[in-house]
Structure formats: C-alpha cells, structure tokens
Amino acid sequence: MNILLIFPAYSRNRNGMFFPLGLASISACLKAAGHQVTGINFNNYDEALRLPHLEQLLRENTFHLVGTGGLSVTMDGVADIVGHVRRLSPASLVVLGGGLITADPLVQFLHLRPDIAVRGEGEETMVELASLLEQGSRDFSQISGIVYWSNGEPRFTPERPAIANLDQLPMEDLATFGMGEYIAMQKGLVTTNYHRTERNLGPRAIIATSRSCPYRCTFCFHPASQTYRRYSLQRSMETILSIRDTYDVHTFGIVDELFDYGPHRIKEFCQALADHDIKINWVCQLRVNKVSRELLATLKKAGCYLINYGFESGSDTILDSMRKRIKARDVEKAFHLTREAGIAIQANFLFGDPAESRQTVQESMDFQQRNKMFFIDWSAVIPYPGTPLYHRNMEKGLISDPIAFTRQIADDSTYLWNYAQPRLNMTTMSDQEAQEVYLELREMCDHNHRQSCARIIAMEQTTACLFHTTLQCPECNGEMSLTISYPPEAANS
Asked: Distance between CA 312 and CA 319 in Å, rounded?
C-alpha cells in the first residue's frame, strides 16, 4: 500500500526547530509491515512552497492513504492539507491524528471531517488500518482507538491501550521526513536560545527516551496517552549513536515531557553515555523538586548544558492550584543549584491561573527579583484543548466556540502579545485589573532583560562592522563566543 504522511508547519518560514518524531515512528512501523511511505515535513519548506510541493506529489502519485496531524495550534494548516488532498486525490483515505485530534476528538472530527481520526498513539492503529484497507475491507469498527463515519455520524471505537513496551517499535524513520535537511538548516546560524546566546555547539537533533508524564498539571495535556513509559537505556544509546554517526551531529535535545521523575534512572542514563563512550551535548526537562547538587554535577559531566524547568510561579497558592506538586522553595533551590553547576536554565513564570490575584502576582514578582531571575520570562496561562483548564472553561461557558478559540490560540504572537491581556481572563481579577497586571509583567520582563549586562571578556574586529566577541553571563558566569555587529545598526548595512 502506498501511503503519504504529512507533518504540518508550526511557523511561516522554513526552520530547524520542529521535527516529527511521532510520524517518523509511524512511518517506520508501516514500512516494517511492508508498506511504501512518502513523508513531508512542511517545516523544511518556506510557506509559499509547501502546498505546491504537496500538489505535485498528489498529481504524480497514487496514495491509498494520506495521514497528517499535529498539536492543536496546527488546526488551520491541517485543514488546508485536507482540502488539497480531497481536491487532488479524492480516492485517498484521509486520516488525522496527534494532539489536535486526541485532545478534542469529536469537535475536530466534525470540523476537519477526515475519513478516520486516530486517538492517542498511532503506530499500532495505522498498521492495522493499512492492513485492513489492503484486504479490501472498510469495516473500521474492529480497529481500536479511532473515530470513523457510520451512516453519516461519528462512531467511536474502544480506547486503545498505551504501547507498554516501547522497545518493540522499530527505530524512527528519520530520513523520510528530512532529518538531514532539518539539521542542515541549523548550520551556520548564531543560535539565540532561551534568552542566552549559546556557545557554538552545532546543530541539534532531537530524540525521545520516554512518553507521557506521570503528573497532571492543570494546563498540560499528554497526547501520547496518560501512561508514562520509558525506552530502555540500550535503545536510547542505539538511537543517539545512529543519529550521531549518520548525520554527524553531537548536540541533542531530549524532548520527553519529563526526562525522568527519579534520580536513579537519570544517573543510569549518564553512566550509559560514559559506558558507550558517547560524548555529546544535550538538553532535557526535569522537575525542580527532583534535582540535587550531586545529580546536577552528574548531568554536567555527562554533557547536559541546559535544563528546561517548570517554574510557573513563586506563589505556593498558584503552584497548588496548578497541581504542580512543588513549592516555591523547590523552585528557588533548583534555580541556584543549577546556576552553581554551570548549567543553563530555560523556564517561565505563568500569569492567569484561576487562583491568580494581585497578591499572588506580587509574590511571584518579589520572588523573581529576590533571586535575580532576570532571564525568566512571563507568559500567559493558555487553556489548551484537552487540559483540565480547557474543560473547566468549557463547563463555565467561557469557551463558547472551541474552533474559534483553537484558531485564536494558534497564533501565539496574537494571543500573548498583540493584546494587552489574554483574551480569556480566568483570574480572580476584573478584566481591567488583569490587563494592568499583565502589562506590568511585560514591562518588567523588558526591564529585566536589560538589567544585567554581559561582561565582555575579549573582542576582536573581523570586518568593518563585525566583532568576534567572548562574553561572560552575569548570572551563571558561563562564557560564550559569538559574532556581533557594532554599532548595532550596522547589522542592516
């Protein structure tokens, strides 16, 4: 069977930020079952080239099945893809999946109107679906974890259990979705990441060592089921070595929702890197209440150079409301220990929880200033589809049109910045008061980013307007080198 899988874009321009590990895993499973798979990663193309490329593929090939999907913010892009497939390849079975469908299956199924919608993990479902079609059958009722049309109405089949043994899945089919192009796009760029210009660590590939998360924060949704599972350490090492040797990349982003919730597994991962003589730089996401000075030293030695944390707030009232299962003291301790270890930090504070008040905001502002967290931004709490906050706002009638709301939050620049406050005010404050507070937080962010200037260690002029500069971060004392324009307006000359 000939199958086309399409990963929608998350930004207008081609970029080296997004890669479809989920579709790459589905592709590998379909190929292992004997099917032919063509893949497109729209993020590898500028906006003007994406749909023409798709149209060319549809005109030149016969695809029995076309699959696409992503997170909720890709809704309109997925709709465009479905429209082009319907017009140019009407005989193709259109299948949608990913967080977009899993978070709100009935609403999105009725809106996007695919032939099939896959809820949760797609590997086993897609293989079963392709096998069924190959046999000439369209009795979709026997496939778990989908929505399909029956007599013009949506029909849900039983939930599919989460894949218990992730190691049974074949290695992700990275080449089909342009891993080489994804990495090549990152080369030669000065990478500004999380408000810190990194040392020149080269292009970064992404891997997953686990799925889902054992915690249930109110603003989070776990599209890969609610069951936390890990790949074996041996499988993770094989994945890293394969990508390193195939693509000559030595920096990795571990994109797990949570790298791990216990220190023993983390130490075993670091030891496995040493045992396999794997020398890489890498990023992961951890919980603030699970780190220690010893663990951070182990991470640093193993090549971890940046940790994503969920700080969220300096107020215990808000952290409790978010069901974070941490306290402000845990955030404070993790922040200082990580800085002490010389590992960079990416984190945010969030404004807009239902328990938010002037007092809780002030607690977080004081907490941020007291600990000199000058590079920690503020963002709005967004009740993404599927999250407890989303369901709560639906029940209260604050979200009356799910499609319009999803379209609104799909453009984060509009939702977060073009308006003085998040359009959905969930706080205890009036709309006017929430607006005033949100503007104050944004102004504080701007001020904080200028408050603590980097120290110039060395500067060498390379051209009339460019200088090779070595800087020292005033927060963690880490040194970094980059080329800058001076004066700044020379960058456009």
From this structure: 7
Would the CA dihedral through 433, 435, 438, 443 be positive or negative? negative
190 three-state secondary structure: coil
Tell me the C-alpha distance between 225 and 214, whole Å. Answer: 11
User: What's the Rg (C-alpha) of the chain?
Assistant: 24
* Side-chain-facing half-sphere of 209: CA atoms under 13 Å: 24
Q: How many CB atoms lie within 10 A of CB 90?
A: 8
* Tally of CB atoms within 10 A around 169: 18
User: Per-residue pLDDT for 423 more than 90?
Assistant: no
| DSSP per-residue letters across 15-61 | -SS---HHHHHHHHHHHHTT-EEEEEEGGGS-HHHHHHHHHHHHHH-
| Residue matched to tokens 């000559």 | 248
Contact 71, 99 (CB under 8 A): yes
The CA–CA distances, whole Å, from 304 to 166, 168, 189, 286, 392 equal 24, 28, 21, 12, 38
Tens digit of pLDDT for each residue in 291-310?
999 999 999 999 999 999 99
- pLDDT tops 90 at residue 180: yes
CA 373/CA 376 separation, integer angstroms: 6
Distance CA 43, CA 19 (A): 8
* pLDDT surpassing 90 at residue 55: yes
- Helices 328-341 & 293-301 angle (0-180, nearest 10): 40
String of DSSP letters for 219-272 = T---TT-S--EE--HHHHHHHHHHHHHHH---EEEE--SSS-SSHHHHHHHHHH
pLDDT tops 80 at residue 200: no
The model's pTM is 0.90
Residue 65 pairs in a beta bridge with 3, 93
Q: Which two tokens stand for residue 71?
A: 């997170």
Measured distance CA(36)–CA(2) in Å, rounded = 5
Q: What average pLDDT does the chain have? A: 90
Q: Three-state secondary structure along 398-446?
A: CCCCHHHHHHHHHCHHHHHCCCCCCCCCCCCCCHHHHHHHHHHHHHHHH
> Alpha-carbon distance 92 to 210, whole Å?
33
The yes-or-no verdict on residue 198 having pLDDT over 90 is no
For 167, the token pair is: 């190691």
Residue 412 has pLDDT above 60, yes or no: no
Please report the pLDDT score of residue 446 as a whole number: 82
Look at residue 263 and tell me whether its pLDDT is greater than 60.
Answer: yes
What is the amino acid identity at position 121? Answer: E
Q: Do the Cβ atoms of 269 and 233 come closer than 8 Å?
A: yes
How many CB atoms are located within 10 Å of the residue 448 CB? 19
Q: Any bridge partners for residue 480, and if so which?
A: 471
